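Table S2 (continued). Query chain:
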Amino acid sequence: MKRILWAAALAAGLTGPVMADSPVTQLMAQEARALRAVPGDRMASYITRPEIGIDYSRDWLSQQRVGTLDENARCLAEALYFEARGESVRGQFAVAEVILNRVDSTAFPDTVCGVIHQGTGRKYQCQFTYTCDGHPDNIANKTAFDQVSRVARLMVAGAPRRLTDGATHYHTRAANPRWARAFPRTATIGVHHFYRQPTQLSQN
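Corresponding output:
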């Protein structure tokens, strides 16, 4: 522990010994508490997640393998199919960013499937319309599903999220939800506007 404190002191530009009640020690204690509050599986994903280069084009995406989708990637692919299959590749990645940003937020469930199915079964209470609109969720277009499956696999594997600036919400241009007046808009891609949830607000 002393070695860690000394390293922290050097990083902070200090040259003398680190006292138990020093600002560096207090800061490290705060960070340690915050890290302990992060679930182990989420922490592991932060540590092991690779950085993946993305070219938001159909040609580039078609060269990526689909592979076998795990449970979270499958949930994400289905959401992209029903929410954004008519969008551009960029638009599909943007919707995926929103879902994964929610996974990382304490205001939402901490798995992809949990985020997507939050409120499912309660009329007008679901987060993603296709999960509670009463229509059967049939995947009829295999080509479209293969494309969104590639997007889903890449995003779950750790592709960078650089399109929506941390957005946690979106809606189509045709909609005008009440919450959009209070949330800062971060991007417009295709038919969707994207927003970041203000930290002072909470929404389930």
